[in-house]
Predict the 3D structure of the following.
Amino acid sequence: MTTDLSDATAAQRDDPGLVRAAVRKSGVAIKYASARLRADPGVALAAVRQNGRALEFVAEDLRGDRKIVLAAVGKWAIALEFAAPALRDDRDVVLRAVRKWGVALKHASARLQADRDLVLTAVKRNSAALKYASDALRAELESGPPPGRQLGTGAVTLRRSGDAASGLK
């Protein structure tokens, strides 16, 4: 039995056993599954647990399923891009993503891009995440005492105005 759905027949793409086997091997195989199975929460969860990028291909309504999105961003942080807007505004979901890869902040809601603690968490993980902070927060964090130590990519450690200690540790 093959688990490559790209050349599968319509009947095979709608076969729950075959599709489950395929997504356990390669989560993005859900791309080729029938619409019915792309909308099946069990199939979708199996797919994103194998490869978070599979969130891009699950049914639209499942992109708003917190359990599925948490599993996806836990595997591949940038999957936040494919989450429903409500979950891109869910602090716990976004925090999980930025702890894995700070630049996932790019796909957070504007409200969370202005959340100081969340932004600092993202920047600690990857200093390039600062460019996705709100304009006001980015300006505030970039201003202040002389920049701290240089990081690998030429980004600087940020300090809060007036703080002797670095805002990032």
